[in-house]
């Protein structure tokens, strides 16, 4: 059985931001948005605000994370097909 991937929305990111700011740990945040902890770690890295928060941890910004995500999706573009791809 495979697990479906979930794309985080802005509301998910805002929930992560609030939970992280009040000091919840990664496992609690992951459970609250029905995601796995590795997704939260990647998301915190994506939305790093460049300064520490009130808890002394790296600050997370949902707005920054949403902008980075949108930029990454736009940058993907179309993949060029190679000769190997055409054979299959």
Keywords:
single chain; 88 residues; mainly alpha; 2 strands; 56% helix
The low-confidence runs, each spanning 5 or more residues with pLDDT under 50, are none
First-to-last CA distance: 26 Å
What does the main sheet amount to?
Answer: 2 strands, antiparallel
Portion of residues in helices? Answer: 55-70%
Rg from Cα:
16 Å
Strand coverage percent: 5-15%
Number of E-type strands: 2
Number of helices: 5
Described by the principal axes of the CA atoms, the overall outline is: elongated
Q: Structural class of the helix and strand makeup?
A: mainly alpha
**Average pLDDT number:** 87
What string, H for helix and E for strand, traces the elements in order?
Answer: HHHEEHH
Strand order of the largest sheet: 1-2
Summarize the structure in words.
A hairpin with a 5-residue loop joins strand 1 and strand 2. Strands 1-2 form a two-stranded antiparallel ribbon. The model has no long low-confidence stretch (mean pLDDT 87). It has helices spanning 10-21, 26-32, 37-46, 62-76, 83-87, and strands at 48-52, 58-60. The chain is mostly helical and 88 residues long.
